[in-house]
Amino acid sequence: QVQLVESGGGLVQAGGSLRLSCAASGRTFRIYAMGWFRQAPGKEREFVVAISGSGSITYYAESVKGRFTVSRDNAKNTVYLQMNSLKSEDTAVYYCAVASATPRLRNSDADYWGQGTQVTVSS
Q1: Average pLDDT in the 42-58 region?
Q2: No. of H helices and E strands in the chain?
Q3: Which phi and psi angles does 102 have, rounded to 5°?
């Protein structure tokens, strides 16, 4: 069992930056693939980024590639999402999640989910 708590969301103007954190507890953190997803009201949850257990492999949605960077610090049991050049379309609740294999996360397929943190980008 894994518990996830997101933080770092807030209100930012278009073009600004935010850094999200996801603190994990439970089973050994480093063996899990981790990802970030987002969901706006009335829309399906969508994949944003994923990172392998070792941190050596990453995947990015085309909409965020070049703007967002995912990283992890297994010693701190924490995954980060650095978001730069934010756009109004990035407004959503952002969730972190874990899965047994990194490719699953690209299809929004995860085993455990956090409660989410709100990101609002004003235009």
Answers
A1: 94
A2: 1, 11
A3: -60, -45
